Amino acid sequence: MKLLILSVSAGGGHINAAEAIKTHTELNIPNSEVKIIDTIKYINPFLDKLIIGSYLKSIRLYPSIFGVLYNYTENDGGLTTISERFNTLMSIKVLTLINKFDPDLIISTHPFSTGMLSILKAKNKLHKPNITIMTDYAPHNSWIHPYVDAYVVATDEMGKEMALRGVDSNKVFPLGIPVHPDFLHNEDSVKILSDLDLDPNKFTLLLMGGSLGMGKILEVYKQISKIPIDFQIIAIAGNNKKLLNSLKKQVMLSNKKTKIVGFSDDINNFMKCADLLITKPGGLTISEALISNLPLAIFSAIPGQEEKNAEFLLKYDLAIDLGTGTDCKAKIQELIKNPYKLNTMKTNCKSFAKPNGGNDIISLIKNMIK
Q1: Which residue, 196, 43, 184, 205, is CA-closest to 113?
Q2: Is pLDDT above 60 for 173?
Q3: What's residue 78's pLDDT?
């Protein structure tokens, strides 16, 4: 089987979902050939730097603008029309790639690539089945296009919301956002913590801000360091080197045992041995935490999609809200001292986890190819 996955590296989530599907496919379907394409980068590397670079800079420096754009594109056709014109122009080169690779099925994990595939099908230039995997916990109109054959969404509730937006319910599959199979393994938390020079018997906080190390992580660390309870911290800076250096300096002023980590492929291990995750509410991070049955404390949600993710978490008592994180000491202290609340949140996480999501998506792929 040949599978083409189109994504966009706007943050780590979209690409991580693509990588998860690739790994599940290779494990479940012997001799399969899976190709992941960072779509805009493939079409034009300069354009990728301009668009994705501007996007990442805007959510770092002016997140409120992103929220305005999110709401505007949800309710107004003006920017949507511009996006469709962009996708129309870009889809021509994508078609060349598709024809050359000749996949049995195409998956998209980003609205841009989903739009391109729909346009090609509308023009009768593409006849391959396609699946869109939505990487958050609430729908947005940028994902919804008339010629998508199947949507994979995170929850049953999200599936119902898609139907209200006019999507045929037979095309919507609430299988969950796919995560890497490593998150499904029961790792030895005692060994993991020991290898990190941490105490397996201590309460462990995991602090992170996604692959980009975004949000007020340093401020959160300063706050939780002041909590008069004995616990330890794993703080992950991601690709943010400035944050990494700042955390290393701050640890020297703290009496909390802390392990500082830069970018890491071992997030599954860290989640398996943590008792509480303090993080931004990105879609992939949420799915990984739910599968790890790990309660969340969320901060610095980007206006728009991450705020919608946060609403989902808070609605079902999967997380507590720390706002910007700059005044979170009391909330974290209260939660650590309340094991009943933590256990309830952990149980709720387990009920919303979809550990079979990856295999279910593979079954969907097989059925659509047939």
Answers
A1: 43
A2: yes
A3: 45
Q: What residues are paired with 107 via a beta bridge?
A: 5, 131
CA 215 and chain centroid, separation: 15
**Average confidence (pLDDT) over 187-201:** 92
Q: What is the DSSP letter of 151?
A: E
The reply to whether 67 and 201 lie within a common domain is: no
Together in a domain, 196 and 345: yes
Which one-letter amino acid corresponds to residue 203?
Answer: F
316 shares a domain with 247: yes
Q: In the chain, which ranges are E strands?
A: 2-7, 33-38, 105-108, 130-133, 150-152, 172-173, 204-208, 232-236, 258-261, 276-279, 296-298, 319-321
Q: What is this structure's pTM? A: 0.91
Lowest mean pLDDT among 54-58, 152-156, 224-228, 344-348: 54-58
Read off the pLDDT of residues 272-285 as tens digits, 9 standing for 90 and up. 999 999 999 999 99
**Residues facing residue 128 across a β-bridge:** none
Answer positive or negative: Cα dihedral of 244, 245, 248, 249. negative
Please state, in angstroms and rounded to a whole number, the distance separating the CA atoms of residues 282 and 229.
28
Same domain, residue pair 238 and 154: no
Identify whether residues 214 and 154 lie together within a single domain. Answer: no
Together in a domain, 156 and 94:
yes
CATH number at residue 274: 3.40.50.2000
Give the burial string for 131-165 (b: 16+ CB within 10 Å, else e): bbbbbbbbbbebbbbeebbbbbbbbeebbeebeee
Query: Is residue 223 domain-shared with residue 283, that is, in the same domain?
Result: yes
Same-domain status, 123 and 168: yes
Q: How far is CA 52 from CA 37, 262, 323, 334, in A?
A: 15, 22, 26, 39
Instruction: Give the range of the structural domain holding residue 239, as residue numbers without chain letter.
Output: 182-352
Lowest mean pLDDT among 13-27, 208-222, 254-268, 334-348: 208-222
Residue 307 is predicted with a pLDDT of 93
Q: Which residue, chain included where needed, has tokens 């730097």? A: 49
